[in-house]
Amino acid sequence: MDKVQKFRKKKVAMLLLYNGAGYQGLQKNPNAKTIESDLLDAMVDAGVIPKEGAEDPGTKISFQRAARTDKGVSAAGQVVSMKIFIDVDSPVEKINKHLPDQIRVIGIKRVTQGFNSKNHCVARTYLYVIPTLAFCPVEKVVREDFRITDDIIAKVRSVLEQYKGTHNFHNFTSGKKPEEASAKRYIMEFSMGEPYVRDGLEFAVMTVKGQSFMIHQIRKMIGIAIAIVRGLASEDAISRAWGHDKFDVPIAPSLGLLLDKLHYDAYNRKYGNDGMHVPVSWDEYSDVIEKFKEEDIFSVIYRTEKKKRKMLAWMSTLHLHTFDEAKMTAAGVQRETSEMHKAFMNVREVRKEKANSVRL
């Protein structure tokens, strides 16, 4: 132990991959199973940080995560910064020996003493692996063998394009007032790739890149996009949700969401080639990252969706939303039923009548 104390501590950036299943999120939290708790304990066991570094990481080792991930959410490109004992041989291998297989440290790079993985991050990219049956038109019966058409794909992409730019997302999170400056967020990209089939279910990967995101923001962005494409919400629902009034925005399931990449363009331009530091980028690990993403994140999403039907269960309650502004009455806040919602309920009644007539 005396020998360890003589080691030099230096600031580093660490690339971390994990499957969030079974964890209460990333951030260390007393009496909760979190990714950070397991990581910090493993680093103590590996001799990379002192014990007090795990107990009070923010103060003792300047620990900082680049982006939070919520309960069950995975990451294929999380970056944390901290001070570690730089003289420890093979720190990555030693840390991984003390981690469960669903958490992997991939690389460690020396950074400037002032580097902060959160503050120096200029953009974040998230993926959402979605079963395409989520976009089944409301007038049709949702089946697991649903296959998305070119017309629906085009509509999805058109809806997602609306998000690009700077908008007020106070209705896409919780506890945020419309007049708060922090409610405005800048979205650089929102797209959906080509569909593919796994275990009989068709999936597609949605990609969203933004400067930063608030809690639940991405899942709510996807939730209302699904409602529009299905025909449950009007085409202007997104732009109306950016308004000052409270707006009914559904939150899509957490299964399928993962942090994919963190971008350090400004830091890399300034320090990446100064002769003393290297860029905070991980291109040399792309094969390892893709392998982990496919085998330890995507495959779990496929199996879980097939077994537990998370999206189908969520879709069964989607019609309960009004996708409209909240209206104030003497009795309090009351949502006004939208014309789209009324139309959907009429369709449900017609389908019930048809089903009853068939049974008779």
From TrEMBL:
SUPFAM superfamilies: Pseudouridine synthase (SSF55120). GO terms for biological process: mRNA processing; mRNA pseudouridine synthesis; tRNA pseudouridine synthesis. Signal peptide: none annotated. Keywords: Isomerase, mRNA processing, Nucleus, tRNA processing. The active site is at D70 (nucleophile). Substrate binds at Y126. It comes from the Eukaryota. It is found in: Nucleus. Its main location: nucleus. GO terms for molecular function: RNA binding; tRNA pseudouridine(38-40) synthase activity. CDD domains: PseudoU_synth_PUS1_PUS2. One of its GO terms (cellular component) is nucleus. Monomer. Forms a complex with RARG and the SRA1 RNA in the nucleus. NCBIfam families: hisT_truA. PANTHER family: PSEUDOURIDYLATE SYNTHASE, PSEUDOURIDYLATE SYNTHASE 1 HOMOLOG. Pseudouridylate synthase that catalyzes pseudouridylation of tRNAs and mRNAs. Acts on positions 27/28 in the anticodon stem and also positions 34 and 36 in the anticodon of an intron containing tRNA. Also catalyzes pseudouridylation of mRNAs: mediates pseudouridylation of mRNAs with the consensus sequence 5'-UGUAG-3'. Acts as a regulator of pre-mRNA splicing by mediating pseudouridylation of pre-mRNAs at locations associated with alternatively spliced regions. Pseudouridylation of pre-mRNAs near splice sites directly regulates mRNA splicing and mRNA 3'-end processing. Belongs to the tRNA pseudouridine synthase TruA family. This is Pseudouridylate synthase 1 homolog.
